[in-house]
Amino acid sequence: MSLPIYLIGARGCGKTTVGEALSRALGYAFRDTDHHLQLSTQRSVAQIVAQEGWEGFRARETESLKAVTAPATVIATGGGMVLAEHNRRFMREQGRVIWLSAPSHILAQRLESQPEAAQRPTLTGRPIAEEMGDILRERAHLYRDAAHHEVNAMQAPDRVIDDILQSLSLARAS
Ligand SMILES: Nc1ncnc2c1ncn2[C@@H]1O[C@H](COP(=O)(O)OP(=O)(O)O)[C@@H](O)[C@H]1O
Ligand SMILES: O=C(O)C1=C[C@@H](OP(=O)(O)O)[C@@H](O)[C@H](O)C1
Ligand SMILES: [Mg+2]
């Protein structure tokens, strides 16, 4: 049985972009916990947070994580999935966990050019470059703890995929 592959990391590291391409390379299904939430609630992340607060969103994303978990599936998580210890444990028990790691200035550059405000309401109220620095300082140890492998996410998506496949000893299906 092919275990699910979870992609974790901060906003802008490429979980959604790389995850979709990785699933095609492997012939796996692709799921994204935020997309699942949006479809099941018919609301954006920003709308859920406005109506239920971050606490409400975090409870829903845990449900989303369980709902999308299946064999032979690449799962792009939201950047805050690792905040809850039970999510970190669940991912490590169910599959293989990959941390797409990049410094905060790279993440901020990507987010400034594609802000996607409905998907990424502010976490701290601070400007993006400062927010990403704060978030990485707060979460880096959680990404490290949760991950089976850390991959350099500053590279082009195809190179990121090659590194993930190599770390998992998997080959492209096509
Ligand atoms: N490896 C990469 N190199 C350059 N740009 C990237 C890379 N991965 C993602 N991006 C860009 O960064 C932005 C955020 O990517 P996304 O996949 O939504 O990240 P995440 O799901 O981790 O928040 C998008 O504009 C995407 O095109
Ligand atoms: O880092 C975070 O706390 C979040 C990241 C977002 O996902 P992406 O990492 O895919 O942008 C989304 O889940 C939500 O806005 C919260
Ligand atoms: Mg994403």
UniProtKB/TrEMBL annotation:
It comes from the Bacteria. Keywords: Amino-acid biosynthesis, Aromatic amino acid biosynthesis, ATP-binding, Cytoplasm, Kinase, Magnesium, Metal-binding, Nucleotide-binding, Transferase. Its EC number is 2.7.1.71. GO terms for biological process: amino acid biosynthetic process; aromatic amino acid family biosynthetic process; chorismate biosynthetic process. The keyword Transferase applies. Substrate binds at residues 34, 58, 79, 139. Its main location: cytoplasm. Mg(2+) binds at residue 16. Pfam families: SKI. Binds 1 Mg(2+) ion per subunit. GO terms for cellular component: cytosol. Pathway: Metabolic intermediate biosynthesis; chorismate biosynthesis; chorismate from D-erythrose 4-phosphate and phosphoenolpyruvate: step 5/7. Its cofactor is Mg(2+). It is found in: Cytoplasm. One of its GO terms (molecular function) is shikimate kinase activity. Catalyzes the specific phosphorylation of the 3-hydroxyl group of shikimic acid using ATP as a cosubstrate. HAMAP family: Shikimate_kinase (MF_00109). This is Shikimate kinase 1.
